[in-house]
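Q: Is it fine to ask for two folds in a single conversation?
A: Yes, each is treated on its own. Send the first.
Q: Here.
A: Result:
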Amino acid sequence: MSLFCAISNEVPEHPCVSPVSNQVFERRLIEKYIAENGTDPMNGQPLSEEQLVDIKVSHPIRPKAPSATSIPAILKSLQDEWDAVMLHSFTLRQQLQTTRQELSHALYQHDAACRVIARLTKEVTAAREALATLKPQAGLVAPQAVPASQPAAAGAGGEPMEISEQVGMNPEIIQKLQDKAAILTTERKKRGKTVPEELVRAEDLSKYRQVASHAGLHSASVPGILALDLCPSDTSKVLTGGADKNVVVFDKNEEQIVATLKGHTKKVTSVIYHPSQSVVFSASPDNTIRVWSVTGGNCVQVVRAHEGGVTGLSLHATGDYLLSSSEDQYWAFSDIQTGRVLTKVTDESAGCALTCAQFHPDGLIFGTGTADSQIKIWDLKERTNVANFPGHSGPVTSIAFSENGYYLATGAQDSSVKLWDLRKLKNFKTITLDNNYEVKSLVFDQSGTYLAVGGSDIRVYICKQWSEVLNFTDHTGLVTGVAFGDNAQFLSSAGMDRSLKFYSL
């Protein structure tokens, strides 16, 4: 049943009824009539808006106007409806395309997540396997470190001070060190001040450019290479230590990884490649020094010399002994064959953590850096502090002895590199770097002609003139290690951007 407005005679949108005349009206029209006249339009009796009663009906279907019943009008109506349908269809197609793209992206993300989960599962499995092999090995190391004739020394954990007191540096070891030092000093005197003919000249070195970059050596989940060393007898063999707790041996010529050595429980901060054996060394804040076989790909010895994180590592010229420094304020001298700590010393008066350590080329003295900006020179035979070099501010980050035996380069968190003369025991040159420059690595080449500085960037200086001949800014992160190839034929660097880079002509 249809309702019709008594005024307009059309189907009302909002119908209401007048209780005065019982007629149906369009509310909009009757309200206007009441506002003007105040009466019911049908019988003239008084009527107000409050008296109107709304009629609840379903949405009315308005009949088509007479003008819409002609054939042209019907065609026009059909055309309008067709256009509306096409526009709606176009909108639906657009929404479908967007939904497909979103679904494709979601599937891609799901696939990537599955790959990451699979890789992490693989790494966790490998870590568990490594841990399973380490647990029995950790128990075997300490008995090797203490001879049977010394039952008073500690067992699995090992009290390094007890070991060092009881083992000591016997006369045979001291004689061995002195003999090696005499041979090295004689060789240095024979070489004199002549520069090797094969050494790259400064004008050629200044033309070096990046020739290779390798970013896949260490895990991307914990990015960063923290230590770098080259094998002295074959500088194409590269050794790196990473924030991912792994030690990696890389062949520069073959451009492939030779071995990935796993065992440390924290990041690897120092690495050394043995000059004549297929053996490498690594140190970590997990308080251990590890000796690895490159050919076997396994850990052959664990040296537990410290009760704090190991901060520095240096191999003696004999290739048989390791010097280490630690946050526990001690330096230790250990036998790499047995893992035995021969001696362990601290400067009682300083009471400060050691940050780095390096042997003098002759091996009878060495230097350590401290967290309170001191450089200390020690006599290995007497195990005494023989000289101190103050002048830096902030913890010492790196020290390096020149092959000539006279120069010592040091870097600290004061954006400077200082050069010291060991004969006069004084600072003769300070290279001031940019503000906030972080010095992380210092190294002289094998001839003592060039000094490389790694940190916020890479810089190479020619010794004596101390002028800059090279500056590389290819790393996107902090440079943590630099090293010269044989006769400075190439330069290598590693950094927190996870990349190992090589530079040459």
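Q: Second one now.
A: Result:
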Amino acid sequence: MSRLVLAIGDFHIPDRAPDIPAKFRKLLAPGKIGQILCLGNLTDKETYEFLRGVTSDIQIVKGDFDVEAPGLPLHKVVTHGSLRIGFTHGHTIIPQGDSDSLLIEARKLDCDVLLWGGTHKFEAYELEGKFFVNPGSATGAISSGWWAEGENPVPSFVLMDVQGSVLVMYVYQLRTDGKGNESVAVEKITYRKETNGS
């Protein structure tokens, strides 16, 4: 059984986006993904049911617009291989998206990898031996305050494959050319946890 882990969030359906892009829905087929880490703002039941059809192992944290799910936790930690992966929506990180604040959160959660959302913009980097990933918005939902004028959100999500202390991440982004043609771009990023012996 596959243990690919999908990190996805900031859907904002139907308020800010109509649906998950069709090209993404086609990629997220049942049987390929072992676990979903949903970073919040899963604002409609139909999207939740779609994700349940991909895999029954869904871990969800509360986003700032998940008003109908007050019981969701603000953060969680799961373990894959020898990696502890923490995840949160990010609206409780002050200032939001700040690398020092994210490092503090990673230390509080005692995790090697911290996933966060809220900015609707893909980002990945290492800091002090930890790996930080924002998968962006699955729908490309509009957001305020995070984009340069004329720049629009790019729909994105990440798939992670963990083998021991190595995480191989595939970033999926829906790109649109000048003629309006859509294509899915995939980028591979590898993180290796530092161990005392290496």
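Q: Anything structural to flag on that second result?
A: Two points. The helical segments are 22-27, 45-54, 99-109. DSSP finds three helices and eleven strands in the chain.
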